[in-house]
Design goal:
Blueprint lengths: L3 H12 L7 E7 L10 E2 L9 H11 L2 H5 L3 E7 L1 E3 L4 H11 L12 E2 L1 E3 H13 L5 E5 L5 E2 H12 L9 H17 L3 E2 L2 H5 L9 H9 L1
Parallel strand pairs: 1-3, 2-9, 3-7, 4-6
Antiparallel strand pairs: 5-8
Length: 214
């Protein structure tokens, strides 16, 4: 409701303005694609199944009023954003710094990640390039498995990463949301960003992690 209702009300208000903005950046997420294992996914891929996929689908549809008004709407489908001050990484850092980190579940699920610096640069890029509209994946071109993510974070922090969190523990602590967000596999490529000439500052995981956590 916080995503869908807020977006719908905002877009309805923008559509009523005598001079609406030319472009609207609307957040979404790679959860749109659902759990698809090792399948490569881009903006042409279909919507998946599950709670996150349904939320993202309704979230993007809520901006239809703005699109119909002639506003250029870009739905940025974010992956796991690497940042110092919040998000998934901030929750992972304390146990990893204590040497208690490890993979989640079997660790074979793909995580599509992106450095916060590239998020900001991607937003600026989308604002300035008139052809950028509709769904746009904001993820690094090199997704990794969760097991590889854990090993790399441990190496950056110079700590072991050998304490896996079993699937039942994730589900017990975080429920359906935790299972879909952390145990589902999203192997997503930023096809439209790359086609438009965008260049990532941190396309590889280890330099991206060192920039925010090293």
């Amino acid at each position: 409701e916080s995503r869908v209702k807020g977006t719908r009300l905002l877009c309805e208000a923008l559509a009523k303005l005598p001079h609406p903005p030319r472009v609207l950046i609307a957040a979404s997420a790679t959860g749109f694609y659902g759990d698809r294992g090792s399948e490569w996914l881009d903006e042409q891929s279909s919507q998946g199944r599950g709670f996150l996929a349904e939320v993202c689908g309704e979230w993007e549809a809520a901006a239809r009023t703005a699109t119909e008004r002639g506003i250029r709407v870009a739905h940025l489908r974010f992956g796991v954003v690497l940042a110092k001050g919040g998000g998934a990484l901030a929750k992972m850092l304390p146990p990893f710094r204590l040497g208690l980190g490890g993979r989640l579940g079997d660790g074979r699920q793909f995580w599509s990640w992106v450095a916060i610096d590239d998020v900001v640069r991607a937003v600026q890029h989308v604002l300035s390039v008139e052809t950028m509209r509709g769904p746009i994946n904001v993820v690094s071109p090199h997704p990794v498995t969760n097991a590889e993510f854990a090993r790399t974070l441990g190496r950056v922090l110079r700590r072991p990463s050998v304490f896996p969190v079993p699937q039942f523990a994730v589900e017990l602590l975080l429920g359906e949301m935790g299972r879909e967000a952390l145990l589902s596999s999203f192997r997503v490529k930023p096809a439209r960003l790359l086609e438009s000439g965008f260049q990532f500052q941190f396309p590889e995981l280890e330099p991206g992690l060192r920039n925010v956590a090293g």
